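Cont'd.
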Amino acid sequence: MKKILIVEDDLIVRSIYRRKFEMSGYEVATAEEGSAALALMPEFKPDVIQVDIMLPGLDGVEVIRQIRSWPEFRLTPILVLSSFYRPDLAKDAWTAGANKCVSKMDCTPNLALDLVEQLLANEASGFTPKYGTIALARDALDRPGEEGAPKKPTAPAEPKPETAAGPESDAAEKPKLRLSLDLPPSTGARPSMPTLSGENTRPSPPAPDTGESPKLRVALDLPPSTGAPPSMPSLAGESTRLAPPNEPKPEFFGGVAPPPFKPTTPPAAGSPAVPAPIVMPSPVGEATPPPPLEITTAPAAVTSGSDFRVEVRQEFLRRAPQIQSELRDRVNALIKSKSTGDQMNLLRELAVCVGSLASLSGITGFSRISHLAGSMDALIQDLHKKPAQMTASVLRTIAHAADCLNVLFRDLTAISQDLPQSLLILAVDDEPISRRTVAIALSKANLRCIGLEDSRMALTILKENPFDLIFLDAEMPGMNGFELCVELRKLPTNKSTPVIFVTSMTNFEIRAQSSLSGGNDLIAKPFLMMELAVKALTYLLKPPPTVEARVRTAP
Amino acid sequence: MRELVELYFKQAGEIMASLEKAITGNAVGDVNHLAHKLAGSSLACGMSAVVPSLRRLEGAAKSGHLIGARESMADVSEQMKVIRRRVQDYLLGYPPTRKTE
């Protein structure tokens, strides 16, 4: 019987994983924090270890580092559960010696079991990876053969040599966004505005064919091998720019996306997607009593896989009202707090709450909740590092995201939990740095956007292409953002597309103009990258209004 | 980050040159637009030290009179030099050598 040590601070998540591995014939020991795990190691001698990266006290990275410092466990396979929105943690884990890293938001118990068995198979086949290199990490994450169901031991690929290239060098495996310009047969006339249309996007309404308009085509090339969409769908691709002669340039951002922290395995068709968790650090300075060690050797009553899935989902549904209430209370307290000290304490509590929610919803397959909670968690971590960034805009973003979580909670079984695919996001700003900043911020959530500097060109494109989300600069030459918003609200294609103004001016007048022009929201510069990512996810993951609600709100 | 910083300084240099010309030519609309643009990109990059001077320029332009614009522009240039030096130090891994404010 193989032995696995599970290091996870969330009791429910820990229990779910423990049961899964016990049902699969493993001898399981669990620890809820790092020092307890290290204390357990010499006695338990696990064959494989599963570590949550963010643990109270000694964090997951330090746990891995210490494990690797013991000759006896130098090669023991380690699976790390980390956050989709914290690729830096995955990098640290790899550097410390982890073998595999998977997003908690997308990791199911089945997937964890598959990965563990694969790691054990690799070990049995004599594969001795060189730990501590990013190259190995990227190899582990992206090697196509490592995804999916348990595999027979195969000769592992050699770890890729470390290169100076960043995650962008993985672009070959990512979806590609192609832009092409079809110029009309040389008429000598100045081409009119380009049109965006493309595969993997909603079909555009047919444009009148004048025979003269140049067409911008956007095509999304999906990687041929996986057969599954990327976890957080996007207009992914290279930073391709194309400028028709004498026309403003549309820019396609995406080359700076963080390491593609995709779910290592897509959920099996027909089965509920079951992501995994986020773990939060304990409040600084809080004395944590030594956790009880839990060691079980006798497998619980064997349950079938589907029963197990149903059971963990039911557990989540049972706890949902309590989680929802706790979330609401914590956000309310945060908004009402006055001092920075109070806010930081309340943020910590909120972080524990959303971190736990991201874990639990992930493992039980509620992907929308998991990703939104996970992104909030990452935003809160950033706020801990930069408390000065705790602005009214950030508070509003957090409150709005919590509100969206409540909507998702309201009818858990009716709302599709699938993450939206092939999203089309537009950022219009005459100022290139601001456009780029928006693009980088969106990349934190693995989202891509099309950047345009000219508001009139944007309007032409908006006429024929429905977008999922639009970011507008308020002040632009020619047609300002408010004027553009008024115009785009008249378009059938984008009359209800969420519009977020990005502006450095957030006084009452600007807020009023934002609302009066038909804007949905406003984000103040300077913003934390993660704030904009959370804001975008809040709009993208929110379920569409029900027919009933639409009727209620109709004029 | 390096990419953003390079883009920022390139653009800031161009805008500041245009701003000087606009102030000299008393082109109030241009001053308003350019100062707003540079303030926006400075905030986006977290270079907030230069923003108050730019806001003064913007305010003056909005009022239709470029009173004090030369002084504000001089402040902008001085702040920009300091920012450039500090960012270079940061990118080279040196600790900050001086405070700007």
